[in-house]
Amino acid sequence: MRTQTVELAHRDIAYCKNVGAKRADILRSEKNIRTAMDMLRYFPFKYIDRSRFYRIAEINDEDTFVQIIGEVTEWHTIGIGKAQRLSATFFDGTHQCELVWFRGGQYVKLQRGVKYLLFGKPSRFNHMYNFVHPDLTPWDKVTPEMTQGLEPYYSLTEKMQRVNLNQKAIRTIIAGLMPEVKMGVADTMGADILQRYRLMSMTDALVNVHFPANTQAMQNARARFKFEELFYIQLQILRQMKRREQNPGFAMPTVGSRFHALYKSLPWDLTGAQKRVIHEIHDDLKSGRQMNRLLQGDVGSGKTLVALLCCLLAVDNGYQACIMAPTEILANQHYETLKAFLAPLRDAVHIALLTGSTTQKNRVPIHNGLMNGTIHILIGTHALLEDNVQWNNLGFVVIDEQHRFGVAQRAKLWTKSLTPPHVLVMTATPIPRTLAMTVYGDLRVSIIDELPPGRKPVQTIHYPLERRAQVYAFVRKQIEAGRQVYVVFPLIKENEKMDLQDLQNGFNELCEAFPEYKISMVHGQMKAADKDLQMQRFVSGETKILVATTVIEVGVNVPNATVMMIQNAERFGLSQLHQLRGRVGRGADQSFCLLLTKMELSKDTRQRMDIMVATNDGFRIAEADLQLRGPGDLEGTLQSGTLFDLHIANLATDGQILALARQAAMDILDKDPLLEDQMNRIYKEQLDILRVQQAYNWSEIS
Ligand code: ADP
Ligand code: MG
Q1: Ligand 1: centre distance to CA 556 (Å)
Q2: Of ligand 1's atoms, which has the minimum distance to the CA of residue 454?
Q3: Of 553, 585, 615, which marks where a domain is finished?
Q4: What's the pLDDT score for residue 387?
Q5: What is the pLDDT of residue 695?
């Protein structure tokens, strides 16, 4: 069995039946299919049930293939020359549909009174279903195989089609390998796992993923490959984590005076969740091992304060700390927030801000302060990673991110000192569980699952822009009751001028609608001093409305503001909307989030608005976001974040399999972290093969 497998894994695709040199080149360049085994692991993306026959009246879903038995009652050619097309009427005994050939009509031979099998994808046009370029086979030419079971469909590129690598060709190539597969292929998963998780054997799965006996067999085969794919990713991530946890780390046992001073200066107590998380982090800091932890919590759960207190733990133990944000605006806001918190400790804790727009002149004292240790905490963007930034003794790093720093960038920080600093990754909003297990799968997780007390859930209402008058009346009532209002306009980076114009128009309109109140406006293009002035006027209550772009997304804290009005909410992503909503609901009064959109919405946008209205739970919103955006969007994140490319598993839908696969990998590594056991040899071998396949060497970046 083993030799069989080795043979398939080493046989050049060019030497497989029905391939040849030219097609082999295309398979290699288009799909990275190099061997017979690669071909076998080229899984279909869908299956069509050829055992099911439809009536025309039963079609209810465009875009899915159907097959129908019937006759062609009438046909004619329209147009001349290249524009010529053939149009025919197909009749199933009760209903009609239309068949169209834009090309090659002259080769279609139609006959009246003959029974045909029609196969194709319907679309609706002129109140009738249409099939463009359908397969039309006279019934007496229909072979039993054609209408048997599930027919696999493979993703093809244009270049593949050009050398006639179409669905039929791929099926034929794979079918040619089946006799060998059926002789038995060695499994890439251990028997114990196959048994415990009831997974199909490799041999059965290869047969049934391509030519399934039935739907159940197809699903079992796919589940097995999904499990396997996710299992090896998890094994890799977790082995990395286990290895790194052997790294020595700076010991920070003391809870010192600065930590206590800030804690005592707070006007309220920490929430239970904040305390628990700080304990978890402090346990890591004491351990003598390097910490790598993910801090998750909903908007407004008080992550920033937790991060700051942990930085002070490091400072009290004689180390420096830094907080890295993905954008300048966020870095600025963190700096301002920290400065405010640290005001009572002004002489004991020195902080500085370093971003791309820090002038050369201002950089010199910062560089010096970092080198001689007089700066305790540095806040900034990835400018922190520049080579000329030298530390005295960097011991603690906070990365505040929204899936924007990849693993590689995180790793770069660690090369700054011989002993790697402790790393706390903080997400702006919750992230879906499946993403946490992959993109951040090498981190331990702490979750703040509690909001500070006294917060009333924000009430969210969705209005079409046409009902603006009603919205304004509502806003006026709130202002009359002494509250304040945010109005946010979307920002499209590609055209700042137009964005500004939109913002200015919106501002003018609000000034006209509310002549009796003062209104502030802030945006990213403003000078810092002007922005501060406008913000200050709003914070002090002088202005009642703050018109802004997403500048206010994070950081601003005005408990008296009870309305967040979002213009063109359809232009924002779910997590951004949730972030914005988090700006209100911070005081004792009931707060509102008003989502204004145009009347006509795509299905997708409508769902986003509905979710916002339905829940305030950031974790639920993150899951919904993943379902809506689907894995396509995620793949980008995955590739930049973790270097993993998923072929069959789908993070939007395979969460359960992922959790099991992670557990299975964890169980193995808990007993045998280095995979030295003879029993685990198969896993070690597979990991080695995978590592060779991955262009990027994962181990280099840790
Ligand atoms: P996050 O970064 O998690 O979105 P923030 O750190 O911005 O949340 O905290 C939200 C607001 O709640 C801030 O104004 C912060 O000062 C305040 N806050 C933090 N912790 C507490 C607490 N335990 N009790 C009351 N307010 C708190
Ligand atoms: Mg925050």
Answers
A1: 11
A2: 25
A3: 615
A4: 72
A5: 44
Predicted pLDDT at 573: 87
| Number of separate domains in the chain | 5
Please check whether residue 534 lies inside any domain of the structure.
yes
Please report which ligand is nearest the Cα atom of 554: 2
Taken in order 638, 644, 650, 654, the sign of the CA dihedral is: negative
The alpha carbon of 448 and the centre of ligand 2 are apart by a number of angstroms equal to: 12
pLDDT at 689: 82
What is the per-residue pLDDT for 129? 92
Atom in ligand 1 nearest the alpha carbon of residue 303: 3
| DSSP β-bridge partners for residue 686 | none
User: Alpha-carbon distance 662 to 293, whole Å?
Assistant: 18
SS3 label, residue 483: coil
Among 97, 129, 147, the domain-final residue is: 147
Please report, for the domain that includes residue 593, its CATH number: 3.40.50.300
Q: Are 265 and 340 in contact (CB under 8 A)?
A: no
Residues of the chain with pLDDT under 50: 554, 634-643, 695-702
Range of the domain at 237: 187-244+657-702
Q: Are residues 568 and 485 in the same domain?
A: yes
Residue among 304, 335, 581 whose CB has most ligand 1 atoms within 8 A, to mutate: 304
How many CB atoms within 10 Å of residue 581?
23
Which CA distances in Å does 596 have to 70, 126, 184, 350, 463? 51, 35, 61, 43, 5
339 belongs to a structural domain: yes
pLDDT for the residue numbered 698 = 39
Spatial separation of the C-alpha atoms in residues 261 and 272, rounded to whole Å? 19
Q: How many residues appear in the chain?
A: 702
pTM score over 0.90: no
Residue located nearest, by CA, to atom 18 of ligand 1: 302
Pocket of ligand 1 (CB under 6 A): 268, 270-271, 274, 297, 299-305, 452, 557, 582
Let me know whether 294 and 220 are in one domain: no
Q: Indicate whether 393 and 307 sit together in one domain.
A: yes
So what's the pLDDT on residue 440?
83
421 and 563 assigned to the same domain: no
What separation in Å is there between the alpha carbon of 277 and the centre of ligand 1?
A: 14
pLDDT at 353: 96
**Residue in 269, 275, 305, 424 to alter for ligand 1 test, most ligand atoms within 8 A of Cβ:** 305
Residue 69 pLDDT: 95
